[in-house]
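Illustration 12: Polymer-forming cytoskeletal protein.
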Amino acid sequence: MSNAAPRPKPSPSVLSTDLTVTGNIKTTGDIQIEGTVEGDIRAHLLTVGESATIKGEIMADDVVVNGRVVGRVRGLKVRLTSTARVEGDIIHKTIAIESGAHFEGSVQRQDDPLQNGQGTPKLAPPTAEAAPAPAATTEKK
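Figure caption equivalent — predicted structure in token form:
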């Protein structure tokens, strides 16, 4: 007999105000940052608390910024609240910026803003050396 009951959604991971993390953070769940992170963050839902500072790239389906971010933000839904301070570019599908938010950078809309941010570089266009040689032709007499 299978267990038909849905699993309860796990509670978000919380990094408290007295915690400083140097390095990248990756989770498939939700995370709330109240402390300081120097590194990139990948998550499903990321909430940056008012007392938080993040120096690095953020990539999440849903990003809510209440604190300070220095670096690029990529998200399907990005929201800057009135207490947000963001220095960096935002690449989003939908965005909301509340009155009072401080933002320095550019905003770019993409249908899939998470697509090119997985840490893998885009492939460079082929060079002339890599181009296939033209097919040899023979002349009939």
